[in-house]
Design goal:
Number of domains: 1
Number of helices: 3
Largest sheet: 3 strands, antiparallel
Strand order of the largest sheet: 3-5-4
Strand content: 15-25%
Number of strands: 5
Distance between the termini: 53 Å
């Protein structure tokens, strides 16, 4: 595939909702609520012409970064 999107010089990877939910340990409904609240990376349609029931995915790099932020926040001391 020519003109394929890349992230940091490598190929772009995506997680389907089932994989995303398994990685973060949350239900699809909760992930969706967090997306709508701006607290989780937004998913996108893999085929924008497929209508409301088409396949969607999250960018793997964004989900991995979100997980890393959560892990880093547990290590940061809380302000008194």
């Amino acid at each position: 595939m020519t003109g394929a999107a890349t992230v940091r010089g490598g190929p772009m990877h995506v997680y389907r909702p089932e994989k995303t939910c398994a990685l973060v340990g949350m239900s699809n409904t909760h992930v969706r609520r967090m997306e709508l609240a701006g607290k989780f990376p937004r998913r996108f349609k893999l085929n924008p012409d497929s209508g409301p029931f088409g396949a969607s995915a999250h960018l793997a790099e964004e989900v991995d970064a979100w997980i890393a932020e959560r892990a880093a926040s547990r290590e940061a001391p809380k302000a008194a």
